[in-house]
Amino acid sequence: MTLRHDALIVGGGIVGAACALYLARRGLRPLVLEADFVGSGATSAGMGHLTVMDDSPAQFALSSHSCSLWSDLGDQHGELWEEDPCGTLWVAAEEEELPLLASKAAFYRERGLEVEELSAADLAKAEPELRPGLSGGLLVPGDRVIYAPKAVRWLMEEAVALGAEVKEGSNVLSLEDRTAVCDSGSFEADVIVLAAGAQSARLLPSLPLEPRKGHLVITDRYPGFCRHQVLELGYLKSAHQMSGQSVAFNVQPRATEQVLIGSSRELVGWDKSVNRGLVHAMVERAIEYMPRLAELSVLRTWTGFRPASRDNLPFIGRWEPIDGLWIAAGHEGLGITTSLATGELLADLIVARQPTLDPSPFDPMRVVGGS
Amino acid sequence: MGKIAIRIDGRRVQTDEGNTVAAALINEGVWGFRRSPQGESRGPLCAMGICFECRVTIDGEAHRRACMEICRAEMEVATDG
Fold first, then answer.
1. Do B62 and A220 touch (CB under 8 A)?
2. Domains along chain A?
3. What is the pLDDT of residues B12-44, one digit of tens each?
C-alpha cells in the first residue's frame, strides 16, 4: 500500500518537529515518520541549552536567529518546557585564556548581543561553587535552558494542530525518488525531509555524518548549587575534535534543582554503553572547576549521539542527487538551539519563499563540491 | 553498650553507640525523614540502602541514607519530614 502526502519528514526529533511545524505554517500537511517515539533520540539525551554560538559567522547567524525564535515562543509557552533564563557563563581558568575571553566578548558585541565580562571576583560572586583562582568569565545573559523532551512534544502537537500527522514506530528502511519505504508500507510525497540526526547517514551513506557520542551525569536535588549554564572556555576546542576522546567542564542547573554534568565526545560508532573511564575523566574535569561536585550524589548516567558533520555546520537544503529529497541534519550538539531556525529555513526553501537567513553555508551539496 | 549524643534538627538526644541514624531517629519518634518533590512525607522503607527513601542531611551533606550511616558523637542530622 502506498500513501501520498504533501511532504514526508523522516525523524521525529526536535529538528523534524520544527520542520513539521514550519512546513505546516507554510500551508503543507507533512507526515512525520518516527522510528521510535517523538523526541526519543538525541533530543532527549542532550542538555537542552539554548545558546548563541560564536564558532563561525554562519553558526552565529543560525543560533542567534533560532534563539530569538525560541525567545518568542518561550515568552508565551516557556513554562511548558521548564524554561529557565539562567544565561551562559563561560569560564577562563588561566590568565592566558583572558585574550580569548576578550575576543569572544568582542565577537558577540560586534553582532549586537548583550554580554558581560566578569573579573575573578565577579565570577566568584556569580557562581559561588567555582573554585578560587579562576581568571575571569563571560556572561551571556540571554541564553536559556529548556527541557527538550517537553518542548519537542509541544512543537509536534502544534504542527499536528495545523494539519501535520505523526506516525511513531515507523522505521524508514530506504529512500527512493519521492518515496520512503517503511517497515509498515511505503509513503510517497513530492517533498521528503531527512531529519534523522546521525541516523540520516544510514539512509543516505554519501552524507558525511558521524555519531559523536556524549555522556551526561545527573545528580540528586541540590537547591541553588549552580545558577547558570557554566562552561569552560576551551569547550569548543573539545567540541570540534574529530578524533580520540575529549571532555570539557559543562554544568547546568535543572528546574528540578538537580545538576546536569557534561560533557564528553568520542567517535565509537553506535555503542551506547557507558564508558566508565571517560565518565570519570569528565567528572574529574568538572570537579577541577567546582570542587564540591565531588560530594554530590549521582542518580543516573546516560549516553547519546550527536550528528557530527566535518565542518561543524548542519546540512539544511536540497539533496540534488535524489529527486524531492531535502536534508535537515548534522546539528552536532546544537540541535535544540538551532532546530527552530532550521525548520523555518528549510520550509522557506521548500516553498520558495525568501528565507530570513543566507542558506548557502548550510547547503548539503557543499560536500560534493556543488553549488 | 555506651551512649553517644547526636543532634536531630537541633535537638540533642542520646542514642546507643552503633545505632544507625535511621534507628536513632525512629527511637526518638521521628518517622518523617524528608519530603518528596510533591511535598509528601518520606521515611525508611527498605532499611538496607536500596530505596533511598530515608535520605537526611548529615553534617551539612544532603541526601545521606539514614539507614546506612552509623551515628557518631555530635553528628548533626537534619530532617524535612
1. yes
2. 2-47+148-209+311-368 (3.50.50.60), 88-141+210-307 (3.30.9.10)
3. 999 999 999 999 999 999 999 999 989 999 999
Q: Strand pairing partners for A33?
A: A10, A167
Min Cα–Cα distance to chain B from A297, Å: 7
- φ/ψ region of A186 (left if φ > 0, alpha if ψ in -120 to 50, else beta) reads beta
| B63/A220 touch (CB, cutoff 8 Å), yes or no | yes
Taking CA atoms, what residue in B is nearest to A255? B37
Domains defined for chain B, CATH in brackets: 3-78 (3.10.20.30)
Q: Which residues of A touch B56 (CB under 8 A)?
A: none
With an 8 Å Cβ cutoff, are B63 and A297 in contact?
yes
Distance CA A221, CA A239 (A): 28
Question: C-alpha distances in angstroms, A81 versus A47, A254, A259?
Answer: 13, 11, 17
DSSP secondary structure letters along A5-19: EEEEEE--SHHHHHH
pLDDT, tens digit, for every residue of A265-305?
999 999 999 999 999 999 999 999 999 999 999 999 999 99
Cβ pair A42, A272 in contact under 8 A: no
Taking every pair of Cα atoms in chain A, the longest distance, rounded to a whole number of angstroms, is 67
Angstroms from B64 CA to nearest CA on chain A:
9
For residue B64, the chain A residue with the least C-alpha distance is A297
Q: What is the pLDDT of residue A3?
A: 65
Nearest CA in chain A to B38: A256
Confidence of residue A244 (pLDDT cuts 50, 70, 90): confident
Note the pLDDT tens digit of each residue in A161-173. Answer: 999 999 999 999 9
Whole-prediction pTM: 0.91
Interchain CB distance below 8 Å, B62 and A256:
no
Phi, psi of A320 (to 5 degrees): -65, -35
